[in-house]
């Protein structure tokens, strides 16, 4: 149950079910749970996309880029 929760949470947050599944399989070396882990990862990613269409890393990067673009100032070069 812990492994299913782990893959479900990770897959839901990053919305990358194959990556989540492979990482958990490699980390635990438990190939008996391959099918339930894959099903959980796919279900969690699909549910997450229904709630929020953007993965967490995309949302964070867009927020970061918006803040840096608003702070952009011309670079002053000394001597010119």
Task: Explain what the structure shows.
By secondary structure, this protein is mainly alpha-helical. The protein has one domain. Helices cover 72% and strands 0% of the residues. It has 4 helices and no strands. α1 runs parallel beside α3. It is elongated.
Write a short abstract of this structure.
This protein is mostly helical and 80 residues long.
Give the secondary structure arrangement, pairings included.
Blueprint: H1 2-14, H2 17-28, H3 34-51, H4 56-70
What would the keywords be for this entry?
single chain, 80 residues, mainly alpha, elongated
Structural class: mainly alpha
Domains (count)? 1
Shape: elongated
- The amount of helix comes to over 70%
The helix/strand order is: HHHH
Alpha carbon gap, first and last residue: 65 Å
User: Ranges with pLDDT <50 over ≥5 residues?
Assistant: none
- Radius of gyration, in angstroms, nearest whole number: 19 Å
Number of helices: 4
Number of strands: 0
- In this structure, how is the largest beta sheet organized? none
Proportion of residues in β-strands = under 5%
Mean pLDDT: 86
